[in-house]
Amino acid sequence: MKLSNKEWKQKLSEEQFKILREASTERPFTGKYNMHFEDGTYKCAGCNTPLFASETKFDSSCGWPSFDEAIEGSIEYKQDRTLGMLRTEILCTNCGGHLGHVFDDGPTATGKRYCVNSLSLNFNSNP
User: Fold this and answer.
1) How are beta strands 87-92 and 50-53 bridged, if at all?
2) How much is the pTM?
3) Where is the MsrB domain (predicted)?
4) Residues recognised as catalytic
């Protein structure tokens, strides 16, 4: 999904644009999905691609929604050397939107912690 910055700015809120298109980060403990634990699917706020199943979400106490596994094929991984750190950035494979980062310090069997900005997500409840 390729849109111009002008088209993205029309589609997204100002805060969503900063996160999804400019790789910004929302303040910790402020996102609506941080402590959200309903059954359903978390989707990309930019293009509605399914990213995470609710069964993979856990409370990591880090201030952002955390998941231990992504839906297969939904995430692109990119090395991120900003802020003087080496991290793995996660992007939506469909629209290239910045979602957050993945770390190898998760408490479940996968060992992963996908740390995601709430503003990069939409949620659909399971019927």
Assistant:
1) unpaired
2) 0.94
3) 5-126
4) 115
